[in-house]
Design brief:
Blueprint: E1 6-10, E2 13-17, E3 21-24, H1 25-29, H2 33-45, E4 48-52, H3 57-74, H4 78-82, E5 93-96, E6 101-106, H5 107-111, H6 125-150, E7 171-176, E8 197-202, E9 207-210, E10 217-220, E11 226-231, H7 233-238, E12 248-250, E13 261-267
Parallel strand pairs: 3-4
Antiparallel strand pairs: 1-2, 4-11, 5-6, 6-7, 7-13, 8-11, 8-13, 9-10, 9-12
Length: 278
C-alpha cells in the first residue's frame, strides 16, 4: 500500500503533506543497493522524492548563496532585468509578469562561455558554476542508478541519451514567485515537467502534487539541504512508463504576501532525443 499523507499546520491551517521518500546522496554515490531500490520505488510510484545532500557541505553552501543571488537579481528594476530577455527562446534569459519572474541559463552556454552572466550576479560566477556542476553530477548519478535497476543485465543506460558533451538544454533556472495576499488570486498552473529530472530548492511551502493512487492533492515540505526531485515526461517516456511523471502545481497553503524564491536545475536529454522507449 502507498504511504499515507501526513498532516502539518501552517498558520492555523491543517494541510496534507505528501509522503516523499528520502534518498541519501552519499549512499547513492556509493552505489548502495538498498538506496538504489528506494530510488527505483520513489521514481516509479510517486515520481517525486527528496535527495538529502547535507553531507555535501560545499554544495549546500552554494544553494544557500543561490537564494541570495536570486533575491539580488529580482530586486533590480524591470528595465535592468529586461536587458536579459531573449526573444523567441523558451530556455534562455529573463521572463516576467506582474507577480512572478524567472531567469534561465543553459549549462551548455556556461560550459562553453557562449554568454555572459548578468552584471549583477557576475561577482558570484564561481558559486553559479559550482551549483550547475554538482547538480549535473547528482542527476547523472540518479539516472545511472535508475538504469541499473531498470536493466540489471544489460549495457543499456539512460546515460546514452544524456551524453555530457552533446548539445542539450539542461539549465539553471531561478524564480521569484511571491505568496499572494489573497488565495483567490493564485491561478491554476497544473503541469508535468517536460525534461528528464528537475532539482528544486526552496525554503517555503509552494508545491502541491497529485497523488497518483487517489488523485488527491498534497503539499511538498521544503527541507533545508534537500533537493525536491521531479521525474519528467522524458524519463517517463524513455522508461516505457515505468517511472512516473507526476502532475503538480505551484500554489500556497495560506493567504498573505511573502517573498518566495526558488532555485532549480532542469536536466534535459540531448536535443535530438525522441520521446520514445529506449
Amino acid at each position: 500500500m502507498p504511504a499515507a499523507a501526513t498532516k502539518a499546520v501552517v498558520e492555523n491551517t491543517e494541510i496534507d503533506v505528501a509522503p516523499l521518500e528520502v534518498i541519501n546522496l552519499k549512499l547513492l554515490l556509493e552505489d548502495d543497493e538498498a538506496e538504489r531500490l528506494k530510488l527505483h520505488h520513489a521514481a516509479s510510484s510517486l515520481g517525486f522524492f527528496y535527495i538529502d545532500a547535507r553531507n555535501s557541505t560545499e554544495y549546500v553552501a552554494d544553494v544557500e548563496q543561490m537564494y541570495s543571488i536570486t533575491e539580488r537579481y529580482f530586486m533590480q528594476t524591470e528595465e535592468a532585468k529586461l536587458r536579459d530577455y531573449v526573444e523567441f527562446d523558451e530556455f534562455r534569459g529573463y521572463k516576467g509578469g506582474k507577480n512572478w519572474g524567472s531567469l534561465e541559463i543553459l549549462r551548455d552556454d556556461i560550459l562553453h562561455n557562449k554568454v555572459s552572466l548578468p552584471n549583477v550576479v557576475q561577482p558570484d560566477t564561481a558559486t553559479i558554476h559550482g551549483f550547475i556542476s554538482f547538480s549535473h553530477e547528482i542527476v547523472h548519478t540518479i539516472i545511472a542508478s535508475l538504469s541499473k535497476s531498470l536493466w540489471p543485465d544489460s549495457k543499456k543506460s539512460l546515460k546514452d541519451k544524456h551524453r555530457p558533451h552533446e548539445p542539450n538544454n539542461s539549465s539553471l533556472k531561478v524564480y521569484r514567485g511571491p505568496m499572494l495576499e489573497n488565495l483567490a488570486d493564485v491561478g491554476d498552473n497544473t503541469h508535468t515537467d517536460g525534461g528528464t529530472l528537475t532539482l528544486l530548492f526552496t525554503d517555503k511551502w509552494g508545491t502541491q502534487i497529485e497523488l497518483p493512487w487517489n488523485k488527491e492533492w498534497a503539499w511538498v515540505e521544503a527541507r533545508p539541504g534537500h533537493a525536491i526531485v521531479t521525474v519528467g515526461d522524458t524519463l517517463q517516456a524513455l522508461s516505457s512508463g515505468k517511472f512516473h511523471s507526476c502532475r503538480h502545481r505551484v500554489s500556497q497553503p495560506v493567504a498573505g504576501f511573502e517573498e518566495r524564491w526558488a532555485v532549480t536545475y532542469f536536466f534535459r536529454p540531448e536535443n535530438d532525443t525522441a520521446m520514445a522507449p529506449m
